[in-house]
Amino acid sequence: MPKNKLEDAVFTAIMATVMVYGMIVYNVALNTGKVDGTTFLAATHELIFMAPIAFILEFFIVGKIAAKLAFTVMKPTDRPQFITYAISICICCIMCPIMSLIATCLFKIPSFGTWVQTWALNFPMAICYQMFYCGPFVRLIFRLIFRRGKNKEENKQISAEKD
Q1: Are 70 and 86 within 8 A, CB to CB?
Q2: Which residue from 23, 62, 69, 162 could staple onto 90, CB 3.0 to 4.6 Å apart?
Q3: pLDDT for 101-124, tens place per residue?
Q4: Nearest CA to 121 among 35, 129, 46?
Q5: Which CA distances in Å does 8 have to 46, 108, 119, 125, 162?
Q6: Where, by residue number, does the polypeptide cross the bilayer (predicted)?
Q7: Residue 55: which residues within 8 A CB-CB, separation 6 or more?
């Protein structure tokens, strides 16, 4: 997980992009009733402005609130992966209604009922996508970008042995 602001920004940017793209594909598929090449292409058009919105919300506001909420049920001594899961769930619980509201205002005829319906359709998908696919995938990418720990020590030993 991120150890400084730069890493946090990179992690959030990757997570926002992957999460938003997946959710846009899902919503386009719901609206068109099919999944084909045009579904993925249509999603890229919305991604251009929805991903920055998600990044700004999560990086500056939601991430901090979600961490505070997660630590109301978790302790710092709990297993790090469970803390990560708790924070991820809290982020989904906050981001889903906000992003559903934004999408409702931008892409649908806005009303309270339409927003609630959009939120209700998105929430189960957002939680499952985050916990089972997007979250692990983005954490893998992050670990590949910011290698630390044993890998660095092993690489130093291998380099020293070659010299």
Answers
A1: yes
A2: 69
A3: 999 999 999 999 999 999 999 999
A4: 129
A5: 24, 33, 27, 25, 35
A6: 9-29, 49-71, 83-109, 121-142
A7: 12, 13, 16, 17
DSSP state of 123: H
Count of residues making up the chain: 163
Count of beta carbons in the 10 Å neighbourhood of residue 45:
11
pLDDT at 152: 53
Nearest alpha carbon to residue 103 among 125, 84, 86, 87: 125
Q: Per-residue DSSP letters for 14-63? A: HHHHHHHHHHHHHHHHHHHS--SHHHHHHHHHHHHHHHHHHHHHIIIIIH
Distance (Å, whole) CA 59 – CA 82: 21
